[in-house]
Write a structure and sequence with these properties.
11 helices, Arc Repressor Mutant, subunit A, disordered N terminus, 2 domains, mainly alpha, 220 residues
Length: 220
Amino acid sequence: MVRRPGRRPGKQHTRETILAAARETFAECGYDGATIRQIATSAGVDPALVHHYFGTKEQLFTATVQPPVDIAEVFPKLFEGELDTFAERLLTMFMSIWDHPVSGPAFEALLRNALTNRISARLIREFFTVQIQRRAVARLAGLIDPAEARLRATLVASQLFGLAVVRYVLKFEPLASASRETVIATVGPTIQRYLTGDIKRPDLAEKARPSGQTGPGGQA
């Protein structure tokens, strides 16, 4: 909903008002489609005031999502090593965040909101696409097939978020109390395969099949 433009009297709730407008705008338009001017108009403030409180659009987006860690800081550390041991580093970092007394509960609240709130879910999807998937694809350029990079990233995400729900949110035993080493040893190979192993793409095989041919057991 777009509110009338114009600077609001008083500053007590200005920051919260901008954040609320940003949540709705980013959820509706996506990160790429949203603009500071749109958000300012929705909040009823001057665009300069948005920059004053939050800086850049990326900083505003981060403040809107409130991730429990600084992605720009931790992400490069995942690539400090060989690609074939990436899953081990990723799981170690991921579980360290969840096991931390501050970031763990923050991450759980973020995930619960995403599972129950439409706007929160859209924001998390945008955050994953912009802050994680794009960074991963850029880092892995030349190392994996670019046509598969985005699919691989989402497959890895499916394993991590599934692990988070079962181990930390629903607390299914014995996974909930399994040691970090056990989780890495059992879940790690699957994540590593999603990243660097062979992934089946029946859709591409179907497109590549010459006209008039069908799959096994089919008729032309």
